[in-house]
Amino acid sequence: MTPVLVASDLDRTLIYSSAALALTMPDARAPRLLCVEVHESKPLSYLTETAAQLLTDLGDTAVFVPTTTRTRKQYLRINLPGPSPAYAICANGGHLLVDGVTDEDWHAGVQARLADECAPLAEIQDHLMRTADPVWVRKHRTAEDLFAYLVVERELLPEEWVKELATWAEPRGWTVSLQGRKIYAVPQPLTKSAAVREVARRTGTDLTLAAGDSLLDADLLLAADRGWRPGHGELADEGWTAPHITALPERGVLAGERIVREFLKSTRSATP
């Protein structure tokens, strides 16, 4: 029996910070939450208890692959319910983890492709340092020596600056994505979908399900056989969709619960 591969983005797709929960219902009807990430002794990310049980069931029936733009260090502090995933994708595809350890051959191949096809990270960093206004920038960061991002004050961020950055970056082989308080600059060949295809090859799966909320998830969704996006995030804001993508109405942590429910339902219907 060939298993189903389920590749899902994490932040604002499966797990949610307190600011992203979108608990708009009366307090008495709010879902019970499970904390799945602690950082510096403080709770950071949550999913609903119902989603936690569904995710446990999913891990028993499919090849579940967390697929994130987070660095390895940021990913490894998440404690998801269910079986520990044999594979995980970090740094937007730059690192393929096998039982929690980087596959060095995969990483070397990614680095070689970026060197051939994109402007160097140092050029992008220099441009960000020169053009981003300290009035609204709180942090300049690089991730795994693969891409750069800024932490900003959204209410002070000029919308046209992000558009200008994207226009500048595109001919240099880079993509720009605005997610919450972070502006990412990521090399175009650095994709989640490439790493997911490698996992599918290794596991022999012939059906891939996916979910994501941001521009950096679009390639992942397009590469899957079926996909879902929540009612919030970059893709929802742009009305992005495709024939095999379901745009869900739910927003916040309840969207995460719905996504896991859809994963499990589709996995069960595909498994004899």
Describe this structure in words.
By secondary structure, the chain is α/β, with parallel strands linked by helices. Helices cover 35% and strands 25% of the residues. The chain contains 9 helices and 14 strands. The strands form 4 sheets. Strands 4-1-12-13-14 form a 5-stranded parallel beta sheet, sandwiched between helices. Strands 8-9-11-10 form a 4-stranded antiparallel beta sheet, covered by helices on one side. Strand 13, helix 8 and strand 14 (245-247) form a beta-alpha-beta unit. Helix 1 (49-61) runs parallel beside helix 9 (253-270). The radius of gyration is 18 Å and the shape is globular. The protein starts with a strand and ends with a helix. The relative contact order is 0.18. The mean pLDDT is 96.
List unreliable stretches of 5+ residues.
none
Number of helices: 9
What gap, in angstroms, lies between the N and C termini? 8 Å
Please indicate the percent range of residues in DSSP E strands (runs of 2 or more): 25-35%
Which percent range fits the helix content? 25-40%
Report the biggest beta sheet as strand number plus sense, adding barrel if it closes.
Answer: 5 strands, parallel
Global mean pLDDT? 96
What's the order of the H and E elements? EEEHEHEEEHHEEHEEHEHEHEH
In which order are the strands of the major sheet placed?
4-1-12-13-14
Rough outline: globular
Instruction: Tally the beta strands.
Output: 14
Give the structural class: alpha/beta
Radius of gyration: 18 Å
Question: Would you summarize the structure shown here?
Answer:
This protein has helices at residues 49-61, 72-76, 104-117, 121-131, 159-169, 192-203, 218-223, 234-237, 253-270, and strands spanning 5-8, 33-39, 42-48, 63-66, 87-90, 95-98, 101-102, 137-143, 147-152, 174-179, 182-187, 208-211, 226-229, 245-247. It is of the alpha/beta class.
